[in-house]
Amino acid sequence: MNLDVITDHLDYFLVGAYPHGPLGGAALTLILSVLSALVSGVLGFILGIALAVTRGFAQTSLLLVLSFFRAIPVIMLIFWTYFMLPIVFGINVPGIATVVIALSLIGGAYLAHSVYAGIRSLRQGQWQAAAALGLRPWQVLRYVILPQALPIMTPSFINQWVALIKDTSLAYVIGVGELSFVATQVSNREMVYPTEIFLFVALLYYAICSTLEFFANRVARRYQQAT
Amino acid sequence: MLFDSLLAPKYLGWLLDGFVVTVVLSALTCASATALGFVLCLGRIARSPFWSLPVRFFLSLFRNTPLLVQLFFWYFGAAALMPESVLHWLNQPHHWRLPLFGVTWPPFEYVAGFFGLTLYTAAFIAEEFRAGVQGVPPGQARAALALGLRRYQVWLSVIMPQAVRISLPPLLGQYMNAVKNSSLTMAIGLAELSYASRQVETETFKTFQAFGIATLLYIGLIVLIELAGQWIQHRQPAH
Fold it and tell me: What ipTM was reported for this prediction?
């Protein structure tokens, strides 16, 4: 084991060329993760609620669109957004935006099903009782259904967000300078210590993912006790 | 400009070759990961921490790091750890003539890709099996013991059949993930479907056709697994 290759490039692993160049490395991985977690969470809620309130043709078409995003590999969707967005919109889309869009669509499609399943797990009587009390449909959702459904959904949200962190590594294929891209750069430049480099990077990802899991589980437990 | 022409047969051939590699790689991965996942599950639920602790560590490490980094590790990192003689052997072409057909040892990226995919997938399958075993009510085992069955009989004829039935849907989900995850091996130069679509795109600039065909082929594979799962579940007797 030669750890000099890690310490020599530690800054580059953590923040990329910053402050002399663009931000990269683990910091960019974190930014990509947080952005796609937020967007996928919002998308998941909107689409999941849409699944719960629609019926018939509208629901079937929505389910079909969602299963498309769940069926294709993340890399294929990154290719699609990377090559098609500039053609369709005629503008240059930065790599970071491309990745966040692709990851959010896939994450949102998975989360929509978790939200839908969480809402459906409540008894039908909850809707009827709330409606009988004179609440409007969106009030029923906001004050009666979602507060009960949220604790049921939290485990799938945590799993999906851990998966998102891992999937940000796929930004590598379109040359976004996040942690795994930076790792291959250093490995190609040094040529001699790939074992140390990829082991170190794997441990960095591991630290990020398990930290999220640890805190999310703690928050979830406290939340579940409170309700 | 997007739809103006179809792909030449040569490029369709590339995509088809890539598709065959994806199918074979995924099938081999699923088979070996199921076997390994089963063994890991046994270790994970073992009472002795001598077995369960290392397995827990392995599962947590492999589930919480990106597959891409794991593939890089096996492709670049493991090669650096191997003795010179092994590396030399791996880099040479090998061919064995068997009575019915010949076997060719694949290039190193195929070995590393298969190895990495198998370990990653097995870590997820092991947890699905564990959930299946835990889904069997504990009273079942106690009742079977009370009937005079031995421990191994309880496992073989009472717990396992029920656990397999419970973990079948998530297991198929993991098989779908294995198909999708096989696309990551393009990063270590394995010429599977995503790699081929990227290559066709670079050569022809027919973005829509190249990615469109690849996407349809992936969806076809996933739908096939889905249908197979529904068929198996309908065939199972209701209980």
Answer: 0.93
